[in-house]
Design goal:
Number of helices: 14
Strand content: 5-15%
Number of strands: 12
CATH architecture of the largest domain: 3-Layer(aba) Sandwich
Bound molecules: pyridoxal-5'-phosphate
Low-confidence stretches: none
Radius of gyration: 23 Å
Helix content: 40-55%
Structural class: alpha/beta
CATH class of the largest domain: Alpha Beta
């Protein structure tokens, strides 16, 4: 039996355990401590962010970001549709409503022209959104300059969901550092992980201080536990921040390894008819957090789902590209501006195993399985036809 090849698994370096041991040795087993402070500082140095607050998850960071820019019950928030549900769920925590925006074919992220158009239309009827949440998908930055410009024109705060894009660049800078607030995730499947964790960054020191305040139950500066606001328990543990510090040391290596995965996949499969890889935008460097491709079933001879099943048959985990949020039952009532590009990327898009700890022989196995997938699906189709023919031959009454 072949060993299972997973989509994206944690990959520890040499220093994480040292930092964790230090937390134990000094008994800083708390959601505050020296590792948390150092993790925030080192994260700022690495990304160029001015201020950072380490939190328990990327979702928590989005929740706080929305609240910090003033999103309230009944407000609307524009949001990328091609993304993970965690991008939009916190909009609903606040009683606000997401309005989804379609992707651009060249980078798979929010289409700036659609955003500009939608904002103008909303300004005309006096119904502007309270915030915009843009996602940097699969390790690739959105085309952020025109998005920032459009938001600035209408004085709408921009929140960047860079959960999947730590280590990427846009014109030499880190996605997540362009908007009013940026967020990152250190969940187990991300490019670096603290097992669970997140970061909120901003140029505004007061905003980040407010994030820390809200993340620790909004305790007023009084010895008797006084509260004038509703807070949350969203701070990162000092133990996990230790893991994060170790992981920051190897981020560049992780990016290089994931880009190498992509190069190997692309050179082996790029010429197959009907296969196209997610393009890398000209404005920056993608981390290739996940290697994604689209499959044209007519030319390739099998569709995305058939390929996924052929891989699963060989103990290889691949996943469809995110199902657009406007197609999710839970967001069925929400408006979507455009949507056909995201729908097409979902229908044809597949994410391949992309961990930085994959071995060359793992990649070879995935490549062989994809190359053989159209044969595999032809065979299963033949088997099904045979079964159907056989069953129709059963005597009927
Ligand atoms: C992972 C992810 C999140 C959520 O981060 P968690 O740390 O898992 O809460 C949000 N947005 C996107 C695009 C993600 O991929």
């Amino acid at each position: 039996m072949n060993k299972q090849i997973l989509l994206s698994t944690p990959h520890m370096g040499d220093r994480e355990l040292e930092f964790v041991k230090e937390a134990f040795d000094t008994n800083w087993i708390a959601p505050v401590g020296p590792h948390v402070d150092a993790f925030e500082q080192e994260f700022c140095q690495l990304t160029g962010a001015s201020h950072a607050a380490a939190l328990s998850s990327g979702t928590a960071a989005i929740h706080l970001a929305l609240q910090l820019v003033g999103v309230q019950s009944g407000d609307e928030v524009f949001c990328s549709t091609l993304t993970f549900a965690a991008t939009a769920n916190p909009i609903t925590y606040l009683g606000a409503k997401p309005v989804f925006i379609d992707s651009d074919r060249t980078c798979w992220n929010m289409n700036p022209d659609l955003l500009r158009e939608a904002l103008l239309n909303r300004a005309r009827v006096g119904k502007l959104p309270k915030a915009v949440v843009v996602v940097h998908l699969y390790g690739q930055s959105a085309d952020i300059d025109p998005i920032v410009e459009a938001c600035n024109q209408y004085e709408i705060p921009l929140i960047e969901d860079a959960a999947e894009a730590l280590g990427a660049t846009y014109k030499g800078r880190s996605p997540g550092t362009f908007g009013r607030i940026g967020i990152y995730s250190f969940n187990g499947n991300k490019i670096i992980t603290t097992s669970g964790g997140g970061m909120l960054v901003s140029d505004d020191a007061a905003l980040v201080a407010k994030a820390r305040f809200l993340a620790t139950q909004a305790r007023d500066p009084a010895p008797h536990y006084q509260h004038s606001e509703i807070g949350y328990n969203y701070r990162l543990s000092n133990v996990l921040a230790g893991i994060g510090r170790g992981q920051l040391h190897v981020l560049n290596e992780r990016v290089a390894a994931r880009r190498r995965n992509f190069e190997i996949y692309a050179s082996a499969l790029g010429n197959l008819p009907g296969i196209e890889f997610m393009p890398e935008a000209t404005f920056g460097h993608s981390t290739r957090w996940l290697t994604c491709l689209t499959i044209d079933p007519a030319t390739f001879g099998a569709d995305r789902e058939q390929v996924r099943l052929a891989l699963a048959e060989q103990q290889i985990e691949a996943r469809p590209v995110w199902k657009p949020l406007h197609l999710q039952p839970v967001f069925a009532e929400c408006e979507c501006i455009g949507g056909t590009v995201a729908e097409d990327l979902f229908a044809r898009g597949l994410c391949l195993p992309s961990g930085s700890n994959l071995r060359t022989e793992d990649l070879e196995r995935v490549i062989q399985a994809i190359a053989g997938a159209s044969e595999f699906s032809k065979n299963t189709e033949q088997q099904e036809i045979a079964r159907l023919l056989h069953s129709t031959k059963e005597p009927r009454c």
